[in-house]
Structures are given as structure tokens and as C-alpha cells.
Amino acid sequence: MTRVLGKEHCPKAYEHTPEPSGYLAWHVWADGMDRLGYEQRQHDACGLWTQWVTKTGRPAKVAVRRAIEAGR
Ligand SMILES: [Zn+2]
Question: Which residues contact 64 (CB under 8 A, 6 or more apart)?
Fold first, then answer.
């Protein structure tokens, strides 16, 4: 069984995709990431859905603000 850690305890938290902290902002941002064509993925190191990747599996490199604007 995979042990799920809090994301702040992930040993490779630096690999997480930066995200906004507020609940509503997070959902607008996640909609934007989806509209921009990114997919959410489980991080190997912590088992949480903390990584967003392109269709080809590359890490998403998009500013949080830009994804929020896309999600509005
Ligand atoms: Zn992680």
C-alpha cells in the first residue's frame, strides 16, 4: 500500500506544480489548467495529485495567474 503523505511532507515537494492556496482560486486555476490542455497526475514521491503535465508527459510550466485567467 502506498503511504500518502501530506504534500508539505513530500520529500520532493519541489517537483509539485505551483498552485494557488485558496479553495475557490484553486478550482478556477484547476479549470484553467484543464482548458490549457494539462493533465493532473499523481506524484510518485507522495501519492498526491500534485503534478500537472502536458499530453506528452512533460511538467506544466505555466504561471499560476495565467491558468487562473484561463479558468474564468
Ligand atoms: Zn509529492
Answer: 18, 19, 20, 29
C-alpha cell at 49: 495529485
Instruction: Please state, in angstroms and rounded to a whole number, the distance separating the CA atoms of residues 60 and 22.
Output: 20
Alpha carbon of 8 to ligand 1 centroid (Å): 8
Q: Which DSSP helix (H) or strand (E) runs through 53?
A: strand 51-53
Rounded to two decimals, the pTM is: 0.85
- Dihedral angle, C-alpha 47, 52, 58, 60, nearest 10 °: -140
Are 29 and 65 within 8 A, CB to CB?
no
What separation in Å is there between the alpha carbon of 7 and the centre of ligand 1? 6
| pLDDT category of residue 32 using cuts at 50, 70 and 90 | very high
